[in-house]
Amino acid sequence: MEKKLTVDANVALKWFIQEDYSEKALQLLQAFRDGTADLNAPPIIHYETGNALWILSSKLKQVDQEYTKQAYRHLLALPLRTTHLDSDDLQEALNTSYVLNLTYYDALYIVTAKKTRSTLVSADQELVRKAKQVIGATHIADLKI
User: Fold this and answer.
1) CATH number of the domain that 91 lies in?
2) Are 9 and 25 in contact (CB under 8 A)?
3) Does the global pTM surpass 0.90?
4) Is the dihedral angle over the CA atoms 63, 67, 70, 75 positive or is it negative?
5) Per the structure, how many domains does the chain have?
């Protein structure tokens, strides 16, 4: 049975950068490639992940610039189901950010999970904790694949 999941940039970054829970994130990516997981995300996942890769290479000098460019090309090539969010969804995200005291960006992931009837997967404990108030959400460490 295919699991319907929404992933955030924290998870996507772990597909390319060795961090805590990278192994679990890579297992999730493999499940997606095998067809046992359906991965959704708002389009912002590309912007946030690209920004994080840039920070890691240009600002923090932790990762080679060429590696991050290649990683980003791989991310863009993945057939993630990027979910279009219309003006009602965007307004709901703003309302959600106020209600849950989250960034607007994090609220976009919650609205995407809600719209796609999927479970949000994140490596951000606070996001998972707050998201659970309105949708199904799990920390990547606790994900059963």
Assistant:
1) 3.40.50.1010
2) no
3) yes
4) negative
5) 1
